[in-house]
Amino acid sequence: MDKTTATTRMAALQTLATEEGKETVLSLTLKDGSNVKYLIKAPTADALDAAKKEGVSKQKVSSWDMAQSGTVLSIGESPLPLGVALKVSSDPTVRKD
In tens digits, what is the pLDDT along the chain, a chain of 97 residues? Predict the structure, then answer.
């Protein structure tokens, strides 16, 4: 998603527990009120190796990049840890809540 798409479409991003509390869901709410949810699954060893080969970034963000960046407000119960990397493997159905 490019910067324009992100700033004009995304309203909120959060992680939630499933009703059983055993799995985690990534919930993305768009500014039009629609919501997309992704079940976050632990990778298999092969998938993890492939992701490492694809180059999950470990670089630091430069001051210049930060000056060009937008800002989001963390309103959750826990801060986002460094190292979170998710890869979308299937497209869910978008729905309005």
Answer: 555 565 677 888 888 889 998 888 988 888 888 988 888 887 777 777 776 666 666 778 788 888 887 777 778 888 777 777 777 766 666 666 5
C-beta of residue 33 within 8 angstroms of C-beta of residue 83: no
> Whole-model pTM?
0.63
Check: CB of residue 43 under 8 Å from CB of residue 51.
yes
Domain ranges of the chain: 1-41
List Cα–Cα distances, 80 to 8, 64, 73, 94, in angstroms: 22, 22, 11, 25
